[in-house]
Design a protein that fits this description.
It contains 13 helices and twelve strands. With 343 residues, it is of the alpha/beta class. Helix 2 packs antiparallel against helix 10.
Length: 343
């Protein structure tokens, strides 16, 4: 049972991802002696994002349950650099823990973006069946191979939807020639190219300004970020394509994790995994109201048929290309886990 307090909508929306300087949140031990194990936990998510708030709750419980032996300090909002920067830091051991967008694992192994294949999952039942099952186990094994330890539970980021400035996306033809921001992940760049768009890879902290100055006219993200990052101020239409699902893993440097005694590993794992499950619940509640909130702010919504987009990707050779990049074994795990035949 989730015994942590529900995060209120007001708390979620306090502050902004567009702050000029990211504020580092320090967890200060309440014990009379220095911690035996001192760690930093980096994240690109805002200080007011459910993942940040829930992880900070977990770090407090870890300090209490270990009697102050383990102290994890939280650095949200990109205070320690971009996601790519932090991945390098965690792999080198300069940073011990981070909240890693799963698709960014593909910078080390293409299969790290396996879960992001468009239209692999029809709903959250399919997502969690896969990520809490065979697919999640397979992806975590990739973390191990690149020197990282991923905690058992994948955190939700959400189904990605298209937003635009000048027109809604109704059919695949509406994607042609569109200047769209893509995450700095090859799979996403390839997705938009296959649909005839002109993708530009832009880190998330730079997205608002890129949309405001019309470097790009469109982007894709989960509903919760449209509100938290105030993207509704620079986008007019939201087309609920739900074309791919994205998640995060809390992870640690493999050697650092291996040096932590097993009894302390158990405490850290318990609380970080519970924080992840709490984030899943928080985002379900938040997303249930966010469409109405964004509509009240002037954003227009439409629900296009998803099947023509999947067929367009298939005809463009997108699935064939990525099946070859991932390899037959990985693709078989994906299709078996999602229940979808894609290629």
């Amino acid at each position: 049972m989730n015994t942590t307090p529900e995060i209120s909508r007001r708390r979620l929306l306090t502050g902004s991802l567009q702050a000029g300087a990211a504020m580092a949140v320090f967890s200060i031990p309440r014990f009379g002696h220095a911690a035996e194990f001192n760690y930093k936990f980096g994240s690109s998510m805002a200080a007011n994002h459910p993942s940040t708030l829930r992880n900070e709750e977990a770090f407090k419980k870890i300090r209490e349950e270990t009697g102050g032996r383990v102290d994890i300090q939280s650095f949200p909002a990109g205070a320690l650099g971009s996601d790519i920067d932090m991945v390098s830091q965690v792999r080198s051991g300069a940073l011990q823990f981070m909240y890693l967008p799963q698709a960014h694992l593909s910078s080390m192994d293409p299969r790290g973006a396996l879960h992001s294949v468009p239209f692999a999952f029809k709903d959250y039942n399919a997502v969690w069946g896969a990520m809490d099952g065979e697919l999640g186990t397979y992806i975590r094994s990739i973390y191990t191979k690149v020197g990282l330890h991923a905690f058992d539970k994948a955190s939700d980021h959400g189904f990605m939807h298209m937003t635009t400035r000048s027109k809604p996306i109704v059919t695949p033809d509406d994607m042609k020639g569109l200047k769209v921001r893509a995450s700095v992940v090859p799979l996403y760049v390839s997705l938009f190219r296959a649909l005839g768009s002109a993708p530009t890879a832009i880190p998330f902290p730079e997205l608002y300004v890129a949309l405001q100055t019309r470097v790009v006219d469109a982007q894709n993200n989960p509903l919760q970020l449209l509100e938290i990052a105030k993207l509704y101020e620079v986008q007019s239409y939201c087309s609920l394509t739900g074309h791919t699902w994205e998640g995060y893993y809390s992870c640690a440097n493999g050697k650092v994790w291996g040096a932590l005694p097993p009894d302390l590993q158990a405490v850290v794992s318990k609380h970080i995994n519970q924080a992840t499950l709490n984030v899943r619940e928080d985002l379900v509640k938040f997303n249930a109201s966010v469409e109405a909130s964004l509509t009240a702010k002037g954003m227009k919504f439409n629900r296009p048929d998803r099947e023509p987009f999947r067929v367009a990707l298939q005809k463009a050779g997108f699935y064939k290309e990525w099946r070859e990049k991932f390899g037959a074994e990985a693709w078989t795990v994906l299709e078996r886990s999602s229940g979808n035949g894609l290629a």
